[in-house]
UniProtKB/TrEMBL annotation:
SUPFAM superfamilies: Flagellar export chaperone FliS
Gene: fliS
Domain of life of the organism encoding this protein: Bacteria
Family named by the database record: Belongs to the FliS family.
GO-annotated cellular components: cytosol
Subcellular location: Cytoplasm, Cytosol
Membrane-spanning ranges: none
InterPro entries given in the database record: FliS (IPR003713), FliS_sf (IPR036584)
Keyword field: Bacterial flagellum biogenesis, Cell projection, Chaperone, Cilium, Cytoplasm, Flagellum
Principal place of residence: cytoplasm
Protein name as annotated: Flagellar secretion chaperone FliS
Protein's GO biological process: bacterial-type flagellum assembly; bacterial-type flagellum-dependent cell motility
Length: 136
């Protein structure tokens, strides 16, 4: 089995075995990775790679927007939607105007949000210790 095929199978297994919170964190990781790649390509003058990376980041942000449950999420979902909309606009603007400042703003927002999701996931993991489900 080739390395690429092995990596794809490993990733598929990781996604299939992930909790909803872990999937959200994976989306944040992807968005951040594409933002960083777009920023690096912009600084290097690699326009095609910049465009591809920033468009991929935009797709991840759009996916996060689509995942929001505006009815059940209440104010949190509304605030996240506003942040995602801002980030999406900033990424488009960065790609058009070649301004790293807009990407930097998105990286800051997504890094902070990712950290919050990681803490939430860790808190939930502590509250539901292994064996709790068996005792019920």
């Amino acid at each position: 089995m080739s390395y690429r095929k092995f990596a794809q199978e490993y990733l598929k297994g990781a996604v299939n075995g992930a909790s909803p919170l872990q999937l959200i964190i994976m989306l944040y990781d992807g968005a951040l990775r594409f933002m960083e790649a777009g920023r690096h390509a912009m600084l290097a003058g690699e326009i095609d790679k910049q465009n591809t990376s920033l468009q991929r980041a935009q797709h991840v942000v759009t996916e996060l927007m689509a995942c929001l449950d505006m009815e059940q999420g209440g104010e949190v979902a509304t605030n996240l939607f506003a942040l995602y909309s801002f980030a999406l606009n900033q990424l488009v603007e960065a790609n058009i105007s070649d301004k790293t400042e807009a990407i930097d703003a998105c990286i800051k927002i997504f890094s902070d949000l990712r950290e919050s999701w990681v803490r939430l996931e860790a808190d939930l993991r502590l509250k539901t210790k292994p064996g709790d489900a068996l005792a019920a």
